[in-house]
Amino acid sequence: MKITWEFLVPRCCISEKPKTSKLVSKQSTFHRISVSDFSNSTISEDLSISLAGSNLHVFSVQELKVITQNFSSSNFLGEGGFGPVHKGFIDDKLRPGLKPQPVAVKFLDLDGTQGHREWLTEVIFLGQLRHPHLVKLIGYCCEEEHRLLVYEYMPRGSLENQLFRRYSASLPWSTRMKIALGAAKGLAFLHEAEKPVIYRDFKASNILLDSDYNAKLSDFGLAKDGPQGDDTHVSTRVMGTQGYAAPEYLMTGHLTAASDVYSFGVVLLELLTGRRSVDKTRPNREQNLADWARPQLKDARKLARVIDPRLEGLYSSEGVQKAAYVAYQCLSHRPKARPDMTTVVKTLETLKDYKDISTMTFVYIAPVLDQDKQSPQRELLNKTNTNTKSSHKKLTPNLPLHNDFHRA
Ligand SMILES: Nc1ncnc2c1ncn2[C@@H]1O[C@H](COP(=O)(O)OP(=O)(O)OP(=O)(O)O)[C@@H](O)[C@H]1O
Ligand SMILES: [Mg+2]
User: Fold this and answer.
1) SS3 string of 7-35?
2) Which CATH architecture has domain 14-152?
3) Which of 4, 75, 267, 348 makes a 20 to 30 Å CA pair with 180?
4) Hey, where are the domains in the chain?
5) pLDDT value at position 114?
6) Which of 46, 201, 260, 308 is catalytic?
C-alpha cells in the first residue's frame, strides 16, 4: 500500500522498532533517503528511526519553550509562510551532549500557507544534506499537532533583510559578490549531488547570512528530487515565489535544475540593482525586475543605469559587467541556454579579484598646511580605471566619506 503524508506524519514521533531495515540499510550505505522512500515505506518506520544516522535531535515542545523563553516576543526573529521564528539557546543543561549554541526555532502555524508536507520535506532533505552553504538543521519537534524546526542561528538574518531594509548602510559590492558566490555554491552542491536536488524556492529571504556574510540556503519545504533515469524534468504543481520562478516552469509545471538557475539570476539582479524581484510601487514596466533589467545588462552604458545607486559607484566596472552577464545568461527564457551552477560558481570566483573601486572621480583636497612649512595645497585625483584589480586602493563604501573627500 502506498502510504500518504497523512498516514506518515501523525506517526512520525511514535517510537517503534523498525520491522524492516530498508531505510536503515539505505542509511548505512550513505544513500540519501528521499521523500518518495517514505511513501513506499512500511507503516512501522517512523521518521526518527529513518533519519537515525543524521544526528538530528528530537525536541519536545516543552524543551523548545524553555530555550525560547516561552516564544517570547523579545526573541522573535521574523515570520514567513511557515510560521514565526524565535531565537533560543541550547546547551547540555537542556540535554546532555548538546553543543552550546544559539538556535532559531521555527514553529509551524497550522493556519498558515504551509503544512506537514513542507515540514516533513524540510526534515528529510536538510536532515541528510550537509554543506557549508546550507543552513544546518539541528533538530525538530513533532508532538501531537505541533511541528517545529530547530536550526543553527544565523546572526545576520536573511539577505532580503540585509539588502532591502531602509535605515542601514548599504551592502558593499564585494560583500554582495561574496553572498552571490556562497549561495551559488549551495545550489551547485544540490544540483551536483549523487542524487540531485532541485531547490525550487531560491530567493533573497531564503538566503541566510552568518556573521561573516557567508550565505547559507534555508527552507527546503518545496525541494524536489531531480529527474531520474531518462526523464528530463519533474512534473509538479507550480509552487514557488512570484518574480523568482522560471517562465517555462510557470507555464508547464516542468521543473529542472535550470529553473533554480533562473531564480539565481533574479537574486543576482537584486544584488546588482538593490531592487526587489517584484515591486508594485514602481511604474508598470519596472515592476518585474527580471523583465525590466535583463535587456539592459549587456550594454555597459545601460547597465550603469540599473546598478544600485546605494553603491555610490564603489565597484569595479569590469566586475559589475561580468556579474551582469552571468545574470543575463541565467535569465535566458531558453532553459538550455542557461549555464549550470558549477559554471556560475567558477565565473563568480573570478570576481573576488575585483575590489570595490570607485567608478566615479574623487578629489582629495589636503588641508592647507602651515605657511611656515611652505607646503602648497594639493589635489589628488583618483580617477576611474575600469580595468583595475585588487592592486588598487580599496575604498570602503560603508564608511561615510571623510571630510577631506569631495565627490567630483
Ligand atoms: N536560522 C535562522 N537564523 C536566524 N534567523 C532566521 C533563521 N531562519 C529564519 N530566520 C529569520 O526568520 C524570518 C522568517 O523566516 P522564514 O524562512 O520562515 O520566512 P521567509 O523566508 O521570510 O518567507 P517564506 O515563507 O516565503 O520562506 C526571516 O526573515 C529570517 O530573518
Ligand atoms: Mg524562508
Assistant:
1) HHHHHCCCCCCCCCCHHHHHHHCCCCCCH
2) 2-Layer Sandwich (3.30)
3) 75
4) 14-152, 159-349, 362-403
5) 72
6) 201
